[in-house]
Every structure is written in structure tokens, then in C-alpha cells.
What we know:
Helix content: 25-40%
Order of helices and strands: EEEHEEEHEEHEHEHHEH
CATH superfamily: P-loop containing nucleotide triphosphate hydrolases
Function: Essential for recycling GMP and indirectly, cGMP.
Structural class: alpha/beta
Largest sheet: 5 strands, parallel
Number of helices: 7
Number of domains: 1
Domain Guanylate kinase-like: 20-198
Pfam families: Guanylate_kin
Radius of gyration: 17 Å
Family: Belongs to the guanylate kinase family.
Strand order of the largest sheet: 4-9-3-10-11
Number of strands: 11
CATH class: Alpha Beta
Strand content: 25-35%
Catalytic activity: GMP + ATP = GDP + ADP
Amino acid sequence: MMQVLSIQNGATTKECPPLGRLIVLTGPSGVGKGTLMRSLLQRHPELYYSVSVTTRSPRPGEIDGKNYYFISRNKFEQLVAQGEFLEWAEFAGNYYGTPREAVLKQIRAGKTVVLEIELEGARQIRASFPSALSIFILPPSFEELEQRIRNRGQDSEEAIARRLQCAQEEIKAAEEFDIQIVNDDLETAVNAIAAALFG
């Protein structure tokens, strides 16, 4: 019997066969989600990485359209009103969202789509895509997480304090997710994610 993937779009529900898979990778800021994702994609180019939209400024070395689509708050709010996001959330004073149609198109084409998103967005995906595999990345310790955030050298003390406060709350949510992986050693963590995806 063929399963049916239910895609929530406001009050309407469209049905389409689940040809591909949806994978959600989340965890607190500074835990190394981006680094893990880059390593995973280098090893498994067959995965489709969904590029998120954000209102935050690019960090050094980030490329528009590759790391994120960088847009204004006004434009983001227009896209929200038009129902263009699969999920969206505000985090640390900026909006982040996943473009709906790009993801659904890849799933319909049979691709495994990977989202690297914030906790609130990951919860939205779990609600609308219960069949998605959700992975929560944990730091080896809270002290190590703080060190990683500080080592970035990109945030003010106020921003660091905000990120750490959010991280404490986010870590409590780890049990909500299908798999928890501690990012202590990059190689070990990437192997654990790959094992979860490919058995």
C-alpha cells in the first residue's frame, strides 16, 4: 500500500506520494550544524540541501544563494503572507524560513531533502511532516558550546548571552526528536548522521 504524505498549506491539505524523504537537522546555535552539513554533503552529493532564507546579515565568506538567501525583513514578511514557507521562525532577532515549493519539488522527484533549521521551525516540520526523520545535534557540554560561540568572534556579549539562553531551552527539547547525536568529534558525528540516513 502506498503511503500518502500530507502537506499542510494553511487550511488546505494537498496529497502527494512520498517519493523522496525529508530529513530535519536541528540543535542549538553554535553546535556545529553548518559544519556537519557541509561534511555530509561532500560525502553524499546525492542529498538535496534546502537553502534557507534569512533576514540576518551574511557572515564573512557566506554566499547568497549557497549558504542562505539573504533578504530584507519586509520581503520576508511578504513571503510569509503569501504562504511561501514550509516553516519559518524568528531567532536571535532575525527571521529564518524554508522555501516551500523548492523542497516539495525535490521530494516529488524522489530526492532525500535535508533541512538545517532552528528548533521552532523543526517543530513546525514535525507537525506537518510526521514522516520526516528528525535529528537533534547536541554539544559535548554547555561550556564547550559557549566556547564555540565565543570563538566565532561574530557576536556582541549581548548576542552571546541571548544565544546561550536560547541554547539552554533548546537542549531541553532534544528528546522530542527521533535521534540525538553529540557533536564532540566531527568525523564521528558525520558518520552517525550518515548511518541514520543510509542505514
